[in-house]
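Annex B. Sample input.
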Amino acid sequence: MNRIDTWIRRRLKSHPLRAKSLIITIYGDSIAPHGGATSLRSLIRLVEPFKFTSRLVRTVAYRLTQDDWLEAERIGRTSFYRLTSSGRRWGEHCRAYTIPPATWDATWLLVLHLPGAGVDERNALKRQLQWEGFGVVAPGVLARPGGDANAANEILRNSGLASKATVLQARNLNGVTTQPLRDLAHACWRLDALAQHYRRFTRRYESLLEALRRDSVDPQRCFAVRTLLIHDFRRVVVHDPQLPEALLPTDWPGAAARELCRTLYWLILDSSERYLTATLETAQGPLPPAAPYLFERFGGLTRRAGTEALTGTRG
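Annex B, continued. Sample output.
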């Protein structure tokens, strides 16, 4: 057993995977760029490295159709599962692949609850906004630095609360120091806990990078590593508001974790793509080529970055 096998085995043993959550990751990360659809039998083959039974995969696929993540189509004796429009947005816009802006114009987006929204409605809206990086700054007030007002308005429309909340834009007028804003960010977004998650991710995957530099890795193992990498990273990033540098602690570990993820992702991408092509089928036949946005993840990936990661050199 080589280092990669040992790493995968320890990862699966220390943090058992939930099949539904992992298959969401696989569809969003790997299948979405290739059209978002595959047959059930090839999906079962694809997840073999994770030891899921065919019965479990079938059950998960059915449940994801109930949740409006997938839609099913039967052609002859073969079932195919395709991402819905809401599921497709995960692969195209997941914040795990985005690079936080280097600069900030000191603007804020505010979402204010208006009278008339019930407790359950307010809590549901708060969860959705927190996934988009908003923090609770006062009762009934959520905020995030910068950001796209259209995204917040879309959340309000989709949740049916457009008439019970409003979106405002504000600007920081305190030009003396950012310390009060740093204190606010620390309190609203629980940055200490998030920093611990980033450090834990970095420790786990630094050892994997060393193993990849030493051992040859076949396409199936590369796919397994790619899936675990994004699965673990997105579970950290979902809690990250991606604040501008001006609001973060000076020793913030998020940037190093993201760079490590980016390096590993590109290092194993080509080989993992070969496994996908050899394993998956669609209703039209072989898997179509990947959409261009796959290669724009993490701010754009380069072959040189992967080569340097593999050799441990810098040009």
